[in-house]
Amino acid sequence: MKEAILNLLKKNNDDFLSGQIISEKLNVSRTSIWKHINILKKDGYIIDSSSKKGYKLISSPDILTYEEIKDHLHTKYIGKNFLHFDTIDSTNTEAKRLADNGEPCGTVIVSEEQNTGHGRLGRAWISPKYKGIWVSIILRPEVNPIKVPKITQVGAASMINALKSLKIDAQVKWPNDIIINHKKICGILTEMSAELNRVHYVVMGIGINANLDKEDFSEDVFKKATSLKIETGSKIDRKLLIANFLNEFEELYSEFSTNSTVKKSIDICKKNSAIIGRDIKIISDGVETYARAIDISEEGQLVVKYQDGSIKNLISSEISVRGLNEYI
Ligand code: BT5
């Protein structure tokens, strides 16, 4: 009901709308409208109420509910089932719980804050309230589980395109980071539930440091990480960015869901790579080796050339990649 009232207020172009009209249009009592208006106010909407003129929407809060992003969202199925939380342990964990209970492909889970957001290998992911975009998507691809890591490349390419639509240039640091000025602004965590040759579901989680300030990071993380706000000098429109990301994701993911290839995404990741053509340090099981990154294969693996001339394809789950002197 509160969504329906909000829609009417939004459509009314910042003008007063009488309680009588709302009540007729939605077939609810004036008291019920008043109650829902109060809930909207608690959610952060500024609404002018006048006993004579009715209600007028003054401003909407910076929150990532479906209602707030739907005008920018042009997807067919990604985000049609949309769950928004004020606070949660981790959107990936919630997505897995929901997927276990049969929630459909394309379900999007967003939270304004995460208490135990995590990265790969159980690393903590700082997720302060209203400052970032902490989102997970449930996917149900009918592919061999071995192909699933490619979805991370689809996520990375979608984010590069979404950032470009906001006129922000960023690079992909294979396999799962997006970086600006040598620092990380976004990370992707793809998890799955599968049998040996059948995927039950995949959860692709993505964390974007949109409007975090320096104080939001620990000293240690700030050495490697930054936010879009810090790098661009201005506050990012989180609603637009998440919607553009979901739009791009649906488009690029269709290649994967139809024939399990991700050529378009790989092309975008290659064109915007932070590491191809550069000497890198590869960390695997605590052991460091050095090589030159030369390509990303069609399977989404990083192709590297060692000093002895040998060439190897690296699989994302096994390793971390670093620049020689900095994060990248
Ligand atoms: C990742 O892990 O980059 C994947 C992060 C995925 C986070 C999203 S948020 C929505 C969804 N729900 C979750 O619980 N997770 C996903 P990894 O490659 O392990 O990188 C972790 C490293 O990134 C840290 O050790 C830091 O160095 C750096 N980093 C950059 N921004 C950070 C941030 N906001 N919080 C923590 N670490 C950050």
Automatic annotation (TrEMBL):
Q: Does the keyword Zinc-finger apply?
A: no
Give the family from UniProt: Belongs to the biotin--protein ligase family.
- Which HAMAP family would you find in this protein's record? Bifunct_BirA
Question: What task does this protein carry out?
Answer: Acts both as a biotin--[acetyl-CoA-carboxylase] ligase and a repressor.
**Origin superkingdom:** Bacteria
Q: Which SUPFAM superfamilies match?
A: C-terminal domain of transcriptional repressors (SSF50037), Class II aaRS and biotin synthetases (SSF55681), Winged helix' DNA-binding domain (SSF46785)
The residues that the entry says bind biotin are 90-92, 114, 184
Q: Which organism is it from?
A: Clostridium algifaecis
Q: Which gene encodes it?
A: birA
DNA binding happens at which residues?
19-38
Name assigned to this protein:
Bifunctional ligase/repressor BirA
* Signal sequence, start to end: none
